[in-house]
UniProtKB/TrEMBL annotation:
Domain EF-hand, first and last residues per copy: 63-98
Entry-linked Pfam families: EF-hand_8
Protein name (record): EF-hand domain-containing protein
Species of provenance: Solanum lycopersicum
Keyword set, alphabetical order: Calcium
Record has Lyase as a keyword: no
Database matches in PANTHER family: CALCIUM-BINDING PROTEIN KIC (PTHR47319), EF-HAND DOMAIN-CONTAINING PROTEIN (PTHR47319:SF23)
Family matches, as InterPro entries: EF-hand-dom_pair, EF_Hand_1_Ca_BS, EF_hand_dom, KIC/PBP1/KRP1
Length: 122
């Protein structure tokens, strides 16, 4: 289990770097490509079976069945037992606390700049 935790940690650490290098649109594009690699073609969603079958593509081949089922369950907001593209992208962001912190900082910075640029003189 420690091995799978370190693998997940290594993957998560890549998201902020990818965001910095690719920008927001580029990162979302790469996440969409990842979704395409992992999804069940017939269902158009990532299922436990498709994740297990394709997990080696992301270096996650050492994860247990319980870990893979947990990933699907954690991201499955609509309760259909699979991850659609939006659920997958949200899960990837949620699994990267550093990326979430960066996003919050950038949002706050943009809001502050908008406030400074606005003229509130009466």
């Amino acid at each position: 289990m420690a091995n799978s935790t370190s693998r997940k940690s290594n993957f998560n650490d890549c998201l902020p770097l990818m965001a910095e290098k690719l920008g927001g649109d580029g990162l979302i594009g790469e996440l969409c490509k990842g979704f395409q690699l992992l999804m069940d073609r017939d269902k158009g969603a990532i299922t436990f079976e498709s994740l297990k079958k394709n997990s080696a593509l992301l270096g996650l081949q050492d994860l247990s069945d319980d870990d893979l089922k947990g990933m699907v369950k954690e991201g499955d907001f609509d309760g259909d037992g699979a991850l659609n593209q939006m659920e997958f992208c949200v899960l990837m962001f949620r699994l990267s606390p550093e990326l979430m912190e960066q996003s919050q900082f950038l949002l706050e910075e943009a809001l502050q700049q908008e406030f400074v640029d606005s003229d509130f003189s009466f």
